[in-house]
Structures are given as C-alpha cells and as structure tokens.
Amino acid sequence: MTKKRTVEEINEKIRSGKAVVLTAEQVSAMGREATPAEIAERVDVVTTGTFGPMCSSGMFINFGHTNPPMRMERITLNNVPVCAGIAAVDAYIGATETALPHDEYGGAHVIEELIAGKDVLLQATAKGTDCYPRTEVKTYISKETVNEMIMFNPRNAYQNYNVAVNSTGKIKHTYMGTLLPAFGNANFSTSGELSPLLNDPEMRTIGVGTRIFFGGTTGYVAWHGTQFNTGKPVNKHGVPVGNSATLALIGNAAEMSTRFMRAAYFEKYGVSMFVGVGIPIPVLDEDMARRVMVRNSQIETNIMDYGSPDHDILGRTDYQSLYSGEITVNGMKIRTAPLSSIKVAREIAEILREEITAGRFLLTEPVEHFQKTSGLNSLEIRL
Hints:
This protein has 383 residues and is of the alpha+beta class. It has helices spanning 7-15, 24-30, 36-42, 107-115, 286-292, 319-324, 342-357, and strands spanning 21-23, 45-47, 50-53, 58-62, 74-77, 80-82, 90-94, 120-125, 136-141, 148-156, 163-165, 172-174, 177-179, 186-188, 211-214, 217-224, 247-252, 261-266, 270-278, 280-282, 300-305, 313-318, 326-329, 332-338.
C-alpha cells in the first residue's frame, strides 16, 4: 500500500520545485494504463477547472462616503437595482438582477464592466438623517475609486448537473438555454472529468478555507454553497448522479479578469454569469488517486424533461456520450451541446498547474469539512 501523504508534505515538494502536478484530463488519460497505487506514487497534485453559467453570483461593493455623508437606501448601478440594506455605503449587486425596464442587461454586466475597469453610473437616494444628511447622489464609479469589490458567490461549481431536454411541441427558454421542441436538442453544463467536485466527490480535501483559482485570481471556499445536497445517489464508480454539492466562493474582484468572469443573457430567460473556478486536489493516498482518475465515461447524470411540470427524469447518460455530440433517449438520437466551455476549463486547469509547479500557489487544508446532508427542502405555500 502506498504511503499516505499530508498537504504540508506536498507543499514542501511545491516549495522545493519537486512536485509533480498534472491536470485532471492528464491523470484520467494516465489512468488507462496506471493503477491508483502507481498514480499515488507519481503524482502530487491534480488541477481541475470549470467555466460555465453560475447564476448564484454577485459582488459586495463599498463605494466610499460622500461629502456630506449619506446613508444610501435605494441604489442603482447602470440602472440595475442594488441591495442597499447593509450599511451606509455598502451594497451587494446580484448577477441576475436586471436593469429597469430591460431584462437583457443586468448585474452580471455591471460586474464584468467593473472588473474590466470601466466607469459605471451610480445613482442613490435616501431620506437623510442627522448623521447622514445627504439625500441623493449621481456619479461614476470604477474599481479605481471604490474601496472594495468583493466577489461573493453563494452557489457555484455544482458537483454534477442534469441534462436538459424538451418533450413538448413548443420551444422552451430556460436557464439551460433554448430547448427545441420534440427532443430537438439536449444541453448540459458540467466540465466532466475536469470538474472540481467530481475529482473529490466526498470532498476530503475541499472545505471551508480551501484556496482556489477564482475568476482569474486566488480565491477561497467560504462555506458550502446553497442547495448543497450530498444525499444524491452515486453510481458504481462512486460519482454523484444529478445535482449535488455546491460551494460558496469569495475573492477580490478587483484582481479578477473578464476572461474568467463574463456576463451572459439567455433569451427570454434572463441574465446569468459565466464563472471560472479551478481547485487543486492533493493526491494524499490511493483512494484520492482513484478519484482523480475518473473519466467522462464513468461520470453519469440524469436526463431531465424541462417540458414536463415536474421536470421528469427520462434516464441517464455519461459525459463521454454528451461530448460526442449525440445521446439516445427513448430510442431517439438527440444532438448535445455544452453550455460550459471545455476550452476555458482546460485553460484554468493548466494555469493552476503552472502556478503550483512554479511554487506560486500552495495548497491549504480545510479549516472545516462539510457535513453530509440527506436532501433539500421545498418551499411550502401556506397562504
């Protein structure tokens, strides 16, 4: 049996320039010939990546005080409503909030423009108080003028996600993209064997405080994400099937890049945000080696009918089939298309690999691991 290693032992190899760091795709390919024991001996760190639409995203901003000071109560940025009920000049802009009266421009676009260094129009009003007498302000802000831009995303990096199809005779416009009638297409949005939480499905090395690649800079796992659900079934390879674990992420948006943080609009649905996330997985033992060897053919997910009221599950497929461009559902061949970018996911994994290899990115052990869950609650309508 291969000797178990600690994160600190791996960090020492990174500091000395001796660590062997490979991307998840490289290790998956290696796993066709090598055993878990051999991979555990040869590889120290595996890098992952994903870049896809992650609606549950947003940014905290501190604008700085006006003169005379003001307790901003109603705020818009480029006409996008902003949550102002935090403090005098603190606010949170959600990625999916849209500009009034238009829905094709929203918080994600404002966030992208701020990250890009562009000027954004701030408008705010207030009733005025003795200590905050000003009642209105209209000015431009940028990342050079505000005090902080903190990206805080409550739900990112879904461990796995369903495939969307449409059984009805009408086009369906959804957060999974446009779904053609009569099973005209199938959309999916996970980067398969590159996906972070599919390379550590039990999250042995990922938890509160894990250092990650986030939007082009260093970020951290802040907490488990909303709708975190480890109660999903797993397949024979130990991979969760369907929507499962999620992460809440935090990072300095002023250091991020629009290459890895991009606004998007889904026709007749609304605004979303493409977010780039990469997580390094330390190969601590043979079990972790076996996990990071996972291949697209071993990762399954549910095919879900977005045309049915209850989003009926029609079957399962694997990511090798999805990336082939075609799956079969009820005897019908259906064209597939990813909403996430495998090209950018590979770029993220490679950047992270290079940073670790060069000794510029050290691994962290979780401050706290996540609790197991048994399922999710649904909203009960009581009125």
